[in-house]
């Protein structure tokens, strides 16, 4: 049923092998250069697949970012509907449709890689020395791929083998060499899977509840599962998985720098860097323009109008100091205060003093300041 997929994978491998054989001047089967050509064919099979899937990967990241931005609204809907799961599901679908967000977009890059991995696993497991041609390969090409060494271990061999394939491979390689190479690749595959999953958690941003538990479980379950199952994987499949993990690490590092998860330190630093700088000169009023009043409703006076001797504007203290400096006595003239005056006259004189103060630029006259002390000296006569 999946023979068409096996044939497609075999065809891509054969094309890359033809290119690298041309580069290495068509090396003889079973030599180191022949093994390098087949190893590079597997590596560039990964490159071919991941380049094709890169647009889906970008769509996956954008979908995850959109879902993260919807979290506050999803929390509000969950509180609004409470135990009404059907109503919450309908509201969620409506919200996702309005924001053009698809939860399935996060699985797009993973789904196509599963059949490709299984196809390569099937093709390499069926390879064996002196076997018939399969999936579009002739017998010489099939035999060359079966005995192609990777650090002395054929790419079709695995840590655990049995049957006729085991006997055929042990004729061209030793079990010790195969198991050492396979075990090292299994360890590297498991470690790179762990770091890849950890990087995926960074890319997804902070999560809570059940999603956090699933992420933590995958962080440890996937590497352990691959470590156990890696003992039956052919060397070529281990090389494929290791290369795929390296590509994923580099790709996610690039995405995390270009599109950091919202709320992370990198996202805040990027937002601060993209914020336009404010030029202080642009905030200053233009020449002749009316200054903008601050929130307290007062406008700062120019420095040239501030009295350095009396910066607070206290008229009583300032006038008294001025009179003393001029040599005038501080005793006030109360002759005019001996006669009784009406309230209206007092108000008129006060109004006149205020008008005189306003006409003199906001500073009351000295006499006005002395006159303001009249009520305290009323009824006293000036001594002669």
TrEMBL record:
Keyword flag Protein transport: yes
InterPro entries attached to this UniProt entry: YidC/ALB3/OXA1/COX18, YidC/Oxa/ALB_C, YidC_ALB_C
Origin species: Geodermatophilus siccatus
Family the entry assigns: Belongs to the OXA1/ALB3/YidC family. Type 1 subfamily.
Stretches the record annotates as Disordered: 265-384
Protein's name according to its UniProt entry: Membrane protein insertase YidC
Iron found in the keyword field: no
A molecular function (GO) term: membrane insertase activity
Subunit structure: Interacts with the Sec translocase complex via SecD. Specifically interacts with transmembrane segments of nascent integral membrane proteins during membrane integration.
Transmembrane regions: 36-58, 176-196, 217-242
Pfam families in UniProt: 60KD_IMP
GO cellular component, one term: plasma membrane
Taxonomic lineage of the native organism: Bacteria, Bacillati, Actinomycetota, Actinomycetes, Geodermatophilales
């Amino acid at each position: 049923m999946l023979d068409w997929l096996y044939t497609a994978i075999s065809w891509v491998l054969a094309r890359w092998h033809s290119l690298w054989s041309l580069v290495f001047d068509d090396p003889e089967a079973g030599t180191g250069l022949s093994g390098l050509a087949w190893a590079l064919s597997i590596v560039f099979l990964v490159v071919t697949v991941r380049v094709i899937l890169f647009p889906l990967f970008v769509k996956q990241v954008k979908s995850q970012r959109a879902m993260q931005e919807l979290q506050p609204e999803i929390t509000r809907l969950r509180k609004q509907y409470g135990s009404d799961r059907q109503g919450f599901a309908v509201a969620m679908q409506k919200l996702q449709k309005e924001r053009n967000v698809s939860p399935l977009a996060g699985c797009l890059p993973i789904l196509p890689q599963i059949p490709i991995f299984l196809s390569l696993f099937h093709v390499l497991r069926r390879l064996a020395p002196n076997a018939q041609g399969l999936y579009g390969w002739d017998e010489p090409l099939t035999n060359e791929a079966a005995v192609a060494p990777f650090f002395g271990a054929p790419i079709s061999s695995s840590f655990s083998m049995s049957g006729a394939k085991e006997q055929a491979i042990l004729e061209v390689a030793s079990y010790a060499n195969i198991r050492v190479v396979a075990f090292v690749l299994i360890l590297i595959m498991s470690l790179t899977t762990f770091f890849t999953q950890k990087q995926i958690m960074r890319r997804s941003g902070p999560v809570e509840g059940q999603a956090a538990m699933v992420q933590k479980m995958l962080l440890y379950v996937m590497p352990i599962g691959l470590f156990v199952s890696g003992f039956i994987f052919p060397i070529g499949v281990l090389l494929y998985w290791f290369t795929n993990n390296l590509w994923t690490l580099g790709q996610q590092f690039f995405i995390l720098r270009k599109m950091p998860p919202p709320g992370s330190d990198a996202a805040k630093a990027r937002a601060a860097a993209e914020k336009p700088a404010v030029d202080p000169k642009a905030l200053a009023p233009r020449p002749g323009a009316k200054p903008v009043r601050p929130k307290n409703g007062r406008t700062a006076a120019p420095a040239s109008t501030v009295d350095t001797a009396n910066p607070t504007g206290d008229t009583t203290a300032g006038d008294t100091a001025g009179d003393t400096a001029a040599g005038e006595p501080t005793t006030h003239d109360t002759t005019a205060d001996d006669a009784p005056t009406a309230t209206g006259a007092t108000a008129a004189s006060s109004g006149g003093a205020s008008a005189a103060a306003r006409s003199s630029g906001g500073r009351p006259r000295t006499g006005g300041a002395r006159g303001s002390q009249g009520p305290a000296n009323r009824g006293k006569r000036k001594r002669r």
